[in-house]
Design a protein that fits this description.
It is a single chain. The protein is α/β, with parallel strands linked by helices and about 290 residues long. It is about 65% helix and about 10% strand. It has ten helices and five strands. The chain has a five-stranded mixed β-sheet, sandwiched between helices. Helix 8 links the parallel strand 3 and strand 4. Helix 2 packs antiparallel against helix 5 and helix 3 packs antiparallel against helix 4.
């Protein structure tokens, strides 16, 4: 339900003539809901910005939040929503901050009977509802974007590529290896091979709880991609249980070197490069 031109004008007059009371009551209602999670100065600033943007929009005859004249009002609402999403507020708390304007309007209209009628209040409430829903939707989109970014960051952190020796890099995998993560592993490994010029890469699956056909295919694709870059891959961390599963599934690793542990894989690579690993000999007592 959109406001008529007369209703927009009356609401603009009410917000302007009773600005002090409305901003104060709106701030108090918002403070009661947030319970100290925002400073008083921040609450006042936020309410004043929303109040100013709403008055400007109504002054242009806006009857619906989707109107072009409400662009600035939507921008302020979106800024508030995104800010509270990043600060850890809930969607309900964010939308309720806008709905608190209803309490302020009702209190002012009840105090001064000359400022409006019940019909006006219902019309005003419809616009506030639109503002609250817009705030809620913006909050949800922002939270989804934040969660996606955090998931991507965690994915990158969970797939490190480390340099073990000159010419040798390793990818220690921990947890389940799905398609998305396998793609990140491949990209990071190939980029590291380019940056370091390493001819050998060790893919350690000690921390992978289970290997099925899908996981094996991801590993094989990574090995093939590395070979296309001129690097040989060694797979380490194949425990007895995983070895039995691989045999039972009929998975073939072909000519890919496999080792039981990361240490064994490193020793294997060092032998291939002609470097002898130093082993500490037990001290003999005289």
């Amino acid at each position: 339900m959109a406001l008529s031109a007369d209703e927009s004008g009356r609401l603009a007059d009410l917000l302007t003539s009773q600005a002090g009371q409305i901003v104060q009551r709106w701030t108090e209602a918002l403070a009661a809901q947030l319970r100290g999670r925002l400073s008083q100065a921040e609450l006042v600033r936020q309410v004043q910005e929303l109040h100013r943007a709403l008055v400007d929009a109504l002054g242009k005859g806006v009857g619906d939040l989707a109107a072009e004249e409400a662009t600035e009002l939507r921008a302020v609402l979106a800024e508030v929503s995104r800010g509270q999403a990043r600060q850890g507020f809930s969607a309900t708390e964010t939308a309720s901050g806008v709905f608190a304007l209803k309490e302020a309007l009702l209190a002012v209209m009840e105090t001064d009977q000359g400022t409006g009628t019940l019909r006006d209040y219902v019309a005003f409430s419809a616009l506030v509802d639109q503002m609250g829903l817009f705030t809620f939707e913006t909050f949800v989109r922002t939270r989804e974007s934040l969660i996606a970014d955090q998931a991507e960051q965690l994915l990158e952190l969970s797939t490190p590529v480390v340099k073990l020796w000159e010419g040798v890099v390793a990818v220690p995998l921990v947890g389940t290896l799905d398609s998305a993560r396998a793609q990140v592993v491949m990209e990071r490994l190939l980029q590291t091979l380019v940056d370091t010029g390493s001819p050998y890469a060790i893919i350690d699956i000690t921390g992978v709880p289970a290997v099925d056909t899908q996981v094996a295919q991801h590993i094989l694709k990574t090995v093939v991609a590395a070979r296309l870059m001129g690097a040989d891959c060694i797979i380490s961390g194949i425990r007895p249980q995983i070895a039995q599963t691989i045999v039972a599934l009929g998975i073939e690793f072909g000519d890919i070197a496999t080792k039981a542990s990361l240490a064994d894989a490193l020793r294997h690579v060092l032998r291939l490069t002609g470097v002898e690993a130093n082993r500490r000999q037990p001290r003999r007592e005289a």
